């Protein structure tokens, strides 16, 4: 985070009170903070009983006897899918639309709760017929189409574990995730629509399975893109053919509250992604609670739209589990914001009269650049609440969001959370909090947050430090799949009994929290997490590369961007023109990880700046990547390196 952003924050005086009409209808009032205060885990127990159906009510609330391995509601039994589906139908809401699906080519499907329930039951029966049972892992690699949601819920319904892999990840990333989870089944599609054409998914599954160590019994393939795909006899099955004969009757059995619900891989500070593990009862409690209260959900009248893909945690908690547990009506959209034209998102808001809208600052900044005339040409008056997630939102973008998208009245909630936290942790409550542009502000009721110095003492007010969570929370990760030591090391070794989030934060004079970005070797590109180590190891895996260093550099649109400094093996240096070598390396990173990890810039250099002990000086590289003056270089072993780097930068 640059100095200037921090300056803006310090001089930020604007405050916005919730509109009177909003307050009059608000779902969450100040009494929620009262109810949570001094009530500990019991607050969550009350919320869980109120928001969810328990097949067998719990009597135990929190078991923290073996920290950091928490158990919530452990003796209760619950079925996550039943909570998202059947119970709404049984309550008389079967006709309510659950999903307004909008495909990128313009096709549309409205799916009611009754229909979605029937489809998920069929899919559950199909999974059972393929031999999938409780605890088995199912990898889902799909475009954002209704079948993706159906697949997730069907897996949950039978007590199995899904691992959704974002469709933009490469065959190699997919392989690593299938292998690590030892998945039994992969659910995919032939392809999906993106930027006006079909992108293929099934071939990546084929490639991944070719490289794989563990056996995958079957691949279920949804027909979506219509692109030609190869089907392996005895292994690959068409979803529509298999599901047709399935019964829409299926009894949802209750599973233990701590039955694993999903694994979701995310980048850490090493080259190997972490399989973040979430379980059922506590996760669903906090997903439903936050979705209802942070988004002020009136399920009878609201149309909610979260633009995230199901490949990320936001798609899990705020497209699938939170909204459906609350019986919301929502929009899901397959494609990109600017397809076929830059106003596509705003067309969708107008068409479905979206009232609650949740997106990432990157998207807002991209629309800012394109100009206010684009949203200005649509009727966005249905919007009454806006949300932001994934990265710090700069005050300029916040104000633009409020004025241009929110008509100058809709409250904005800036929600801080992580794959690991499972659900929102820090946010304004829209009918209570007076909001500040750029600050995530306050911990939610029932959540305990602190900002600590390196030594572990409370900082502030008006000071910066490291963000921690001081008490266990229901939707917390339960571990890293197959690696309990890494779980303890990564999150619980720095401050003992406090969860270390990896983010820097500032507490202002009102005790409001401002997020300042990651303090570890994790980058945040367009609200998505990437690891510098992971990209470095991908680059050095290329035969041309001798050494590489990767940094996250500030970027006006994507927050941060990947910038790589690469030393080539001498025999490759003059083999081809530099731009061809760079293009080859960029594509290679795309193949190894996925398009999202492709560096914005690759600088071919002769040497990398290192300390005497041989550590790459990333700060310095970051200064260079961000075009700042090069600071004190006295600790460099060879100052000529810097000249080399700046020279090669000037060359471009
Ligand atoms: C990291 C988590 C939570 C879903 C999307 C990202 C950053 C997230 C905010 C926010 C400032 C934010 C943090 C966090 N982050 N939300 N409102 N303000 N920073 O999930 O990939 O697990 O990344 O995203 O740095 O640690 P994720």
From TrEMBL:
<comment type="function">
    <text>Catalyzes the conversion of acetate into acetyl-CoA (AcCoA), an essential intermediate at the junction of anabolic and catabolic pathways. AcsA undergoes a two-step reaction. In the first half reaction, AcsA combines acetate with ATP to form acetyl-adenylate (AcAMP) intermediate. In the second half reaction, it can then transfer the acetyl group from AcAMP to the sulfhydryl group of CoA, forming the product AcCoA.</text>
</comment>
<comment type="similarity">
    <text>Belongs to the ATP-dependent AMP-binding enzyme family.</text>
</comment>
<dbReference type="GO" id="GO:0046872">
    <property type="term" value="F:metal ion binding"/>
</dbReference>
<dbReference type="InterPro" id="IPR032387">
    <property type="entry name" value="ACAS_N"/>
</dbReference>
<dbReference type="GO" id="GO:0016208">
    <property type="term" value="F:AMP binding"/>
</dbReference>
<feature type="binding site">
    <location>
        <position position="526"/>
    </location>
    <ligand>
        <name>CoA</name>
    </ligand>
</feature>
<dbReference type="GO" id="GO:0005524">
    <property type="term" value="F:ATP binding"/>
</dbReference>
<dbReference type="Pfam" id="PF00501">
    <property type="entry name" value="AMP-binding"/>
</dbReference>
<dbReference type="Pfam" id="PF16177">
    <property type="entry name" value="ACAS_N"/>
</dbReference>
<dbReference type="GO" id="GO:0019427">
    <property type="term" value="P:acetyl-CoA biosynthetic process from acetate"/>
</dbReference>
<dbReference type="InterPro" id="IPR020845">
    <property type="entry name" value="AMP-binding_CS"/>
</dbReference>
<feature type="binding site">
    <location>
        <begin position="390"/>
        <end position="392"/>
    </location>
    <ligand>
        <name>ATP</name>
    </ligand>
</feature>
<protein>
    <recommendedName>
        <fullName>Acetyl-coenzyme A synthetase</fullName>
        <ecNumber>6.2.1.1</ecNumber>
    </recommendedName>
</protein>
<keyword id="KW-0460">Magnesium</keyword>
<dbReference type="InterPro" id="IPR025110">
    <property type="entry name" value="AMP-bd_C"/>
</dbReference>
<keyword id="KW-0007">Acetylation</keyword>
<feature type="binding site">
    <location>
        <position position="542"/>
    </location>
    <ligand>
        <name>Mg(2+)</name>
    </ligand>
</feature>
<dbReference type="GO" id="GO:0005829">
    <property type="term" value="C:cytosol"/>
</dbReference>
<feature type="domain" description="Acetyl-coenzyme A synthetase N-terminal">
    <location>
        <begin position="31"/>
        <end position="84"/>
    </location>
</feature>
<feature type="binding site">
    <location>
        <position position="540"/>
    </location>
    <ligand>
        <name>Mg(2+)</name>
    </ligand>
</feature>
<dbReference type="Pfam" id="PF13193">
    <property type="entry name" value="AMP-binding_C"/>
</dbReference>
<feature type="domain" description="AMP-binding enzyme C-terminal">
    <location>
        <begin position="534"/>
        <end position="615"/>
    </location>
</feature>
<feature type="binding site">
    <location>
        <position position="314"/>
    </location>
    <ligand>
        <name>CoA</name>
    </ligand>
</feature>
<keyword id="KW-0067">ATP-binding</keyword>
<dbReference type="InterPro" id="IPR042099">
    <property type="entry name" value="ANL_N_sf"/>
</dbReference>
<feature type="binding site">
    <location>
        <position position="529"/>
    </location>
    <ligand>
        <name>ATP</name>
    </ligand>
</feature>
<feature type="binding site">
    <location>
        <begin position="414"/>
        <end position="419"/>
    </location>
    <ligand>
        <name>ATP</name>
    </ligand>
</feature>
<keyword id="KW-0436">Ligase</keyword>
<feature type="modified residue" description="N6-acetyllysine">
    <location>
        <position position="615"/>
    </location>
</feature>
<feature type="domain" description="AMP-dependent synthetase/ligase">
    <location>
        <begin position="91"/>
        <end position="481"/>
    </location>
</feature>
<dbReference type="InterPro" id="IPR045851">
    <property type="entry name" value="AMP-bd_C_sf"/>
</dbReference>
<keyword id="KW-0547">Nucleotide-binding</keyword>
<keyword id="KW-0479">Metal-binding</keyword>
<dbReference type="InterPro" id="IPR011904">
    <property type="entry name" value="Ac_CoA_lig"/>
</dbReference>
<dbReference type="GO" id="GO:0003987">
    <property type="term" value="F:acetate-CoA ligase activity"/>
</dbReference>
<feature type="binding site">
    <location>
        <position position="503"/>
    </location>
    <ligand>
        <name>ATP</name>
    </ligand>
</feature>
<dbReference type="InterPro" id="IPR000873">
    <property type="entry name" value="AMP-dep_synth/lig_dom"/>
</dbReference>
<feature type="binding site">
    <location>
        <begin position="194"/>
        <end position="197"/>
    </location>
    <ligand>
        <name>CoA</name>
    </ligand>
</feature>
<feature type="binding site">
    <location>
        <position position="518"/>
    </location>
    <ligand>
        <name>ATP</name>
    </ligand>
</feature>
